[in-house]
C-alpha cells in the first residue's frame, strides 16, 4: 500500500505527473483495453474508449482520494466510459441498447481482430444477451478473475448482489448455450 501511495503522490505532483502517468498507462493499458473490449466488443471502439478513459484519469487524478484502490477507481472510470459510449452510440443510431448489443455481436464475426472459434462466438453472443449488470459481473469474474470485493468497489454494489448477479448470469448462459 505504501508503494501505491507513493505512486499516487507522483501522479498528483505536477513535476512528476507526466512520467508517472506514462508508467500508469504502460502498466494498465492492456488490462483496461480487454475490460473495455468485453463491454463494447469492437476493437476500434475499445481503443477510442481506452483513450477517453486515460484522458479522464489524467484530468481527474487530483480528485482521487484513495478511498478505493487506484485499480478499482480506474476500472470504474473505464466501465462508465464504456457504458456511456454504447448508450451514446445507440442514441445516435436511434436504436435501443439491446439492439446495439445485437448489432455488435453480428459485427464480431466480421471483426478481423476477433480470432475466436464458433464456440467463443456463441459464448460472446450469449453474454451480450445478458442484462447489463449481469454481463459486467460475468466478464469481470470469469474473464478478468476479479474478486467480488474488487467488483464491489468498481460497480458500487454489495458483494451479495454481485454473487447473485453472477449466479443468474451463469444460469442464463448455460441455458442459452445448451439449447440448439
UniProtKB/TrEMBL annotation:
Protein species of origin: Neptunitalea chrysea
- Give the family this protein belongs to, as stated in its UniProt record: Belongs to the sigma-70 factor family. ECF subfamily.
GO biological process terms, semicolon-separated: DNA-templated transcription initiation
Q: Which InterPro entries match?
A: RNA_pol_sigma-70-like, RNA_pol_sigma-70_dom, RNA_pol_sigma70_r2, RNA_pol_sigma70_r4_t2, RNA_pol_sigma_r2, RNA_pol_sigma_r3/r4-like, WH-like_DNA-bd_sf
A GO CC annotation given for this chain: DNA-directed RNA polymerase complex
Positions of the RNA polymerase sigma-70 region domain: 24-91
Q: Name one GO molecular function term.
A: DNA binding
SUPFAM superfamilies for the chain: Sigma2 domain of RNA polymerase sigma factors, Sigma3 and sigma4 domains of RNA polymerase sigma factors
RNA polymerase sigma factor 70 region 4 type domain: from which residue to which, for each copy?
121-173
Q: What is this protein called?
A: DNA-directed RNA polymerase sigma-70 factor
UniProtKB keywords:
DNA-directed RNA polymerase, Sigma factor, Transcription, Transcription regulation
